[in-house]
Amino acid sequence: MTRPPTAAQRRVIDAADPVTGRLRGSETQLAALVRRGLAFRHPRPPHDHFLTPAGHRIREAPAEEAVRVTAPVAGDSDVFAARVGGEEAADSGPARLREVRSAWQGLLELRRMTSPGGATDRPCGWERTHLVRAAALALEAAGHRPAIGDGDGYRVRVTPQPEAVAVHEPDLTALRACAATLEEAGWQVSEHTELRTGARYLLASPRRA
Can you give the residue ranges of every domain in the chain? Predict the structure, then answer.
């Protein structure tokens, strides 16, 4: 489990701009937050630092919850576990809803800060390197239900195509609702049929323009 931020780091996080997540602090403090995945350095001058989705969650969480919020996902370098479908257990209570909402807002801010012209209508670089997690976050943030174990619900999976994920959902109406959500979130989506089973599924890839 990841250690919670130090008191000095927590003060820097708490003092971040409430809208943009822009940070003020010493170079040492900011570099430490970047190493922990709680901040990122903007690639363009003046190279300011901003909170990542994980940093936003830290700011919104009480200090005593910081250890839980920063716990990394087993087998993944991300600090937020977007529900990809098929998990054995899933908390869907108010705390989870707040966490998902905060992660999605943080991701939109990341899009704004790293896209030309501040565009938020298409995926950013992080999403293109974390396709499954990014698509799953878009779906969960919009209120779609992930599959629990072998139950019904969406499942987001890797594909042989380097820039596409597959979305499976046994209910055709729900599947097409997932397609609409992903398109609104800036993904290109097409519907296909599995040759072996006849089941419908989606292929989704981040839109570039």
Answer: 1-80, 82-209
Global pTM reads 0.65
3-state DSSP call for residue 200? strand
Domain 1-80, what fold?
Answer: Arc Repressor Mutant, subunit A (1.10.10)
Reported as a single tens digit per residue, the pLDDT across 10-51 is: 889 888 887 778 899 888 889 888 888 888 888 778 888 998
Instruction: Tell me which residue of 53, 50, 68, 69 sits closest to 12, measured CA to CA.
Output: 50
Instruction: Name the DSSP class of 55.
Output: H
CA 19, 22, 23, 24 dihedral sign is negative
User: In Å, what is the CA distance from 180 to each residue of 45, 59, 141, 183?
Assistant: 36, 32, 13, 5
Are 204 and 136 a contacting pair, CB within 8 Å?
Answer: no
